[in-house]
């Protein structure tokens, strides 16, 4: 349970219609199997103790008595399983029959949740047998046990030390209705919704069902476990496919279909609680739900055991794993950024865009965005002025790539060798050219910015910035140097994603020479080229100095987007990069990330305008507010304990 992770499961047992004893055996076996896997909360299908397709047999006392005896067997056989399970069965309540989820733990009934929306249309005839219960404060008895709540609108809390785990339950049609009970449950504090379902399978329904689960988990900022009926239900008129899903805040984490058994993964309730705190429009409390704790019972506490992670954690959280989705994402980024720049160019009277083109990834992406913006405005691409400014560290490879890139894009190219100007400045300030310190590097960066700004003045132009989100996070930019421009098109695009966008452009440009150049740029080591080249090759590699960008982008995503503490970021990084980096390497660069992130905020405070393209940006006018003099003491202390 550490770090908010809770292992959950959706279970589909193989059943026999109206054979309650057989069904109890299957259910108990799955609970014990889940316990062995470390599952702590699980859901079974709707009416699985009897079968959903019993029809008028639901009126028979023999079936109802058999169901209660079968539940007693499940309770007895799972006393040793520290798993909270929601089991579907018919329950007699105040003279009526209710379609219920019975929530059990260690042989004890915790609550009985009744179905709110009873379908009686199409192939569904539930209104013939079942009655909804509106009052959620009734006390009930079942299997000789009492003292639990019966009705809808219940939120169950299992342990006082895990307040973020709050469980709500709804049943099948409840999700399909226009006012799902889960919406109110989540507004009242539930972070995990269990849905016990018996949704028959017809063409196209699986996609819609998946859409419902995904969108409800996103809208409610919750985890959603959907357990569907499957093999063994009557096939007289319907077929059930056991379509099980586990979603978290709009993402399907695990899914299975056309099989029985368990679908297992972990949810992160800390993450969900953080998102709700962040979104101020998320409601705070509901009076029509009953939240109560059940952690002082004689059955023993809900143990806080470690949760072993099996859920997918991507190394590149900013980059979609699906190729089609990734291609669409890259296309959107290019277009969003181009729209932003096009508006700025139009607003300022169509100035000529001026861009420093180094032959590196960031300036390449900025050039691709700029020519697209000119295309959107119906302006000739020749209005883009690309400036190469070679100096001590410039290699033939990067300079050649810059020249070919400008030519293939149809831009004007200008070369301004800044070596003499930099040497003169060294002489003016008394800097030894052999002292390759930060001054040696930053003089070049600021000279390049000065050249661009002055050329923009000459031409009535606008300097397009090239710095990316990862550089801004680390402060890997020269204040009033490459940190400054008149519009920063890459400002919210992390380095790992920059690479994919450029690769997408190479694969879709339709120009073999341009594609070849872009491929070579992608293969070039990331470098500011501010230190002298060695034997004509790049001597200064950024990732040797500040760490791998794939790690820093990972840190950035989880530390900023989700507010995870250092220990949790480290844990996820170790899990995601297992086999690539050992713990000490990850920890080393994580310390670097936090130290630089806090100390370099002043550069972000003065960053130019630029479009937000993703969920993370560090603009002081956008999604990030942070004092430039905030200290990292708490974060660094935690890192030292790791």
Kindly describe this structure.
The structure is a single chain. 39% of the residues lie in helices and 18% in strands. The chain has 642 residues and is of the alpha/beta class. It has two domains: 2-293, Carbon-nitrogen hydrolase (Nitrilase/N-carbamoyl-D-aminoacid amidohydrolase, 4-Layer Sandwich), CATH 3.60.110; 323-641, 3-Layer(aba) Sandwich (Rossmann fold), CATH 3.40.50.620. An eight-stranded mixed β-sheet has the order 6-7-5-4-3-2-1-14. A seven-stranded mixed β-sheet has the order 13-12-11-10-9-8-15. A five-stranded parallel β-sheet has the order 18-17-16-19-20. Helix 2 links the parallel strand 2 (41-43) and strand 3 (84-93). Helix 8 (361-377) runs parallel beside helix 9 (396-409) and helix 10 (419-429) crosses helix 11 (438-459). It starts with a strand and ends with a helix.
Quick take:
The protein is α/β, with parallel strands linked by helices. The chain has helices at residues 20-36, 61-77, 173-176, 181-187, 205-219, 269-278, 323-347, 361-377, 396-409, 419-429, 438-459, 469-474, 495-508, 512-523, 542-546, 549-561, 566-576, 583-599, 601-605, 633-641; strands at residues 5-12, 41-43, 84-93, 96-105, 108-114, 138-142, 145-150, 154-157, 166-171, 192-197, 223-228, 244-248, 251-256, 261-268, 290-293, 352-356, 385-388, 412-415, 461-465, 487-488. Strand 10, helix 5 (205-219) and strand 11 (223-228) form a beta-alpha-beta unit.
């Amino acid at each position: 349970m550490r770090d908010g992770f809770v292992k959950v499961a959706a279970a589909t047992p193989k059943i026999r219609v109206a054979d309650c004893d057989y069904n109890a055996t299957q259910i108990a076996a799955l609970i014990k199997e889940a316990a062995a896997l470390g599952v702590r909360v699980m859901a079974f299908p709707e009416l699985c103790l009897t079968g959903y397709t019993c029809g008028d047999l639901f009126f028979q006392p023999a079936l109802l008595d058999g169901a209660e005896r079968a539940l007693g067997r499940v309770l007895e056989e799972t006393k040793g399983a520290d798993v909270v399970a929601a089991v579907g069965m018919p329950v007699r309540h105040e003279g009526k029959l209710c379609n219920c989820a019975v929530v059990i733990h260690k042989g004890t009934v915790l609550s009985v949740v009744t179905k709110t929306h009873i379908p009686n249309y199409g192939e569904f005839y539930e209104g013939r047998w079942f009655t909804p219960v509106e009052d959620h404060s009734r006390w009930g008895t079942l299997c000789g046990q009492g003292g639990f709540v019966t009705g809808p609108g219940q939120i169950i809390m299992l342990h006082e030390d895990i307040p973020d785990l709050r469980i709500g339950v709804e049943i099948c049609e409840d999700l399909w209705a226009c006012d799902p009970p889960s919406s109110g449950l989540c507004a009242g504090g539930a972070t995990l919704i269990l849905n016990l379902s018996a949704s028959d399978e017809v063409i196209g329904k699986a996609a819609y069902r998946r859409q419902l689960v995904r969108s409800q988990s996103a809208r409610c900022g919750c985890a959603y476990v959907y357990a569907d009926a499957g093999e063994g239900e009557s096939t007289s008129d319907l077929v059930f496919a056991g379509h099980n899903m586990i979603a978290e805040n709009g993402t399907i984490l695990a899914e299975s279909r056309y099989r029985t058994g368990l679908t297992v993964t972990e949810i992160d309730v800390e993450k969900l609680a953080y998102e709700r705190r962040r979104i101020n429009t998320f409601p705070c409390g509901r009076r029509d739900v009953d939240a109560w704790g059940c952690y002082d019972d004689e059955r023993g506490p809900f143990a806080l055991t470690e949760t072993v992670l099996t859920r997918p954690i991507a190394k590149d959280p900013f980059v979609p794993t699906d190729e089609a989705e990734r291609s669409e994402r890259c296309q959107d980024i290019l277009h969003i950024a181009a729209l932003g720049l096009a508006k700025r160019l139009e607003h300022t009277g169509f100035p000529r865009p001026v861009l420093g083109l180094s032959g590196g990834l960031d300036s390449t992406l900025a050039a691709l965005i700029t020519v697209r913006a000119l295309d959107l405005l119906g302006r000739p691409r020749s209005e883009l002025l690309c400036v190469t400014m070679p100096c001590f560290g410039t290699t033939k490879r990067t300079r050649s790539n810059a020249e070919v890139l400008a030519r293939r894009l149809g831009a004007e190219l200008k070369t301004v060798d800044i070596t003499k100007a930099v040497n003169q400045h060294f002489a003016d300030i008394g800097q030894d050219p052999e002292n390759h310190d930060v001054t040696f590097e930053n003089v070049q960066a600021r000279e390049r910015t000065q050249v661009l700004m002055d050329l923009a003045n000459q031409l009535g132009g606008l300097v397009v910035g090239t710095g990316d989100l990862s550089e801004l996070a680390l402060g890997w930019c020269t204040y009033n140097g490459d940190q400054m421009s008149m519009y920063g098109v890459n400002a919210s695009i992390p380095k790992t994603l920059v690479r994919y966008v450029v690769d997408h452009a190479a694969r879709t440009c339709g120009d073999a020479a341009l594609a070849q150049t872009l491929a070579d740029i992608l293969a070039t080591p990331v470098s500011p080229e501010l230190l002298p080249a060695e034997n004509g090759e790049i001597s200064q590699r950024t990732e040797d100095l500040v760490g791998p960008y794939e790690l820093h982008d990972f840190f950035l995503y989880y530390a900023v987007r989700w507010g995870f503490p250092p220990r949790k970021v480290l844990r996820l990084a170790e899990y995601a990069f297992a086999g690539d980096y050992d713990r000490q390497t990850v920890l080393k660069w994580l310390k670097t990330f936090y130290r630089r992130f806090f100390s370099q905020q002043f550069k972000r405070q003065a960053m130019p305008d630029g479009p937000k393209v993703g969920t993370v940006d560090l603009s002081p006018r956008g999604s990030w507010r942070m004092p430039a003099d905030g200290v990292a003491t708490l974060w660094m202390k935690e890192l030292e304990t790791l």
